[in-house]
Design a protein that fits this description.
Helices cover 46% and strands 0% of the residues. It is an all-alpha fold. It is flat. It starts with a helix and ends in a 7-residue tail after the last helix. The model has no long low-confidence stretch (mean pLDDT 78).
Length: 102
Amino acid sequence: MGRWYSHTPCGQAFAQIFAQWTWNIRLERGQQLAPTELRTTEFAPAHEVEKFSANILAPEAVPTPPVTYGLPQWAYPLLRMASLVLRLLCSLMARCGAPPII
């Protein structure tokens, strides 16, 4: 909506504030013209927490294996990756008898 008024950040911020302001006025005027009861959310009562006895033993902690990383590797440039994918598709299409893409 902000771009209807302006293509600058200040104009878009103004449009957002103006839209919220007009919406709030609409709600207020509507409440004055046709008053309704305020709607609230009724929450369910909280469940009672059962207390655990001290006799229950905690499960044994399983040690997690250490994380190991391999040597750093260079990422493929995007064009090289695209050419690899295209070659893979061409080879798959050639297996099923489809005409080549390139």
